[in-house]
Design a protein that fits this description.
- The protein is mostly helical.
- It has one domain.
- It has six helices and four strands.
- The strands form two sheets. It has a two-stranded antiparallel ribbon. The chain has a two-stranded antiparallel ribbon with strand order 2-3.
- The longest helix is centred in the N-terminal third of the chain and has 32 residues.
Length: about 160
């Protein structure tokens, strides 16, 4: 009964936070997540949502510090959009295209997640007939793709204009 009262009070909140959503999630059999599943979801949220953001922002600042000509353009663009305000609004993001290109270029050069690995759950057939069996481990080097000269001209150069 106490649990039901707390459930009702929490669900009555205007906005449920991430943990509330996980705690109240149910599958088609009305089963909630196990403690192990909850822990895994929270770990993913914390590391994927925070560490990657911190890494991305850090490398953006590094790139701009190494390239003051780009830093100056971003600074002027942001000052112009902000006017006498102290904070950006959602609508302002479309008004800072050069800064957006710098962000994309920093993320290309220094991806917060440099590689991804997965295990196939079923047989996968490519368009040319080659296959990957179920249970096959696949790794993709995001860093390698972002530095591939076949994909990117001058891949090791910080060039935000490539995203025009």
């Amino acid at each position: 009964l106490k649990g039901e009262t707390e459930l009702g009070r929490t669900q009555a909140k205007r906005y449920l936070d991430f943990l509330d959503i996980l705690l109240f999630a149910r599958d088609e059999n009305q089963q909630g997540l196990s403690d192990e599943d909850l822990r895994a979801e929270v770990d993913t949220f914390m590391f994927a949502g925070h560490d990657t953001t911190a890494s991305g922002v850090s490398f953006l600042l590094y790139c701009l510090a190494c390239h003051p000509e780009h830093q100056n353009i971003c600074r002027e663009e942001i000052i112009q959009v902000l006017g006498d305000r102290d904070t950006m609004e959602w609508e302002d993001l479309s008004k800072i295209p050069y800064t957006t290109m710098c962000i994309k270029e920093a993320l290309r050069l220094y991806p917060p997640v440099p590689g991804v690995a997965r295990k196939t759950t079923k047989l996968y057939t490519f368009f040319d007939g080659r296959t990957l069996p179920a249970g096959f481990h696949v790794a993709v080097s995001v860093f390698g793709i972002h530095r591939n000269p076949v994909v990117w001209e001058n891949p090791n150069v910080f060039d935000p204009l490539r995203f025009l």
